[in-house]
Amino acid sequence: MNRLKNHVNRLFIGYEENQQVRELKEEILSNLTAKVADLESNGVEHKEAVSLAIQSIERVDHLLDDEIEVFTNKFKVELIQSALIYSIIAWIMTMPASIFRMGILVNYLLLVVVIILGIMFFLDCNIKCNKT
């Protein structure tokens, strides 16, 4: 029981002691105790049952956080990706029009837009990939 209680206390290091944390500690401790009892009833030795119960819960941060994570960067990357794809298509479609003076200007303008969006996409995608 002492090892279980110590494990539960270690799980909550860094969290402010409030009513929610106290209730969650009690619930986790009772669940771990029940798990140990269940494992022992199935023939597992006490020390091994405690170790298995401790291994079953390694973190509690997902249980305490009331805030929902919103991945705005994902939306931004997808938006830039869509703009990049449509810009590339428009740039390719204006290549035959580059025979004319006005077509050259539009073609180069779209090429610059493609390059800028490509750089933005690359940078945002790298930021997203490094966070996960």
Query: Could you tell me the radius of gyration in angstroms?
Result: 28 Å
Helix content: over 70%
Strand content: under 5%
Number of helices: 6
Total beta strands: 0
Number of domains: 2
What does the average pLDDT come to? Answer: 81
Largest sheet: none
Q: Order of helices and strands, N to C?
A: HHHHHH
- Give the terminus-to-terminus CA distance: 36 Å
Low-confidence stretches: none
Q: What is the approximate shape?
A: rod-shaped
Briefly note the structural class of the backbone: mainly alpha
InterPro entries: Perm_prefix_1
Transmembrane segments: 83-99, 105-123
Keywords: Membrane, Transmembrane, Transmembrane helix
Report on this structure.
The protein has two domains: 63 residues, no CATH class; 60 residues. The protein is mostly helical and 132 residues long. The protein is built from six helices and no strands. Helix 1 crosses helix 2. The model has no long low-confidence stretch (mean pLDDT 81). InterPro entries: Perm_prefix_1 (IPR047928). Keywords: Membrane, Transmembrane, Transmembrane helix.
Offer a few descriptive terms.
132 residues
Summarize the structure.
This protein is mainly alpha-helical. It is built from 6 helices and no strands. Helices cover 77% and strands 0% of the residues.
Topology:
Layout: H1 2-11, H2 19-41, H3 46-56, H4 61-64, H5 72-93, H6 101-131
Helix pairs in contact: 1-2, 2-3, 5-6
InterPro entries: Perm_prefix_1
Transmembrane segments: 83-99, 105-123
Keywords: Membrane, Transmembrane, Transmembrane helix
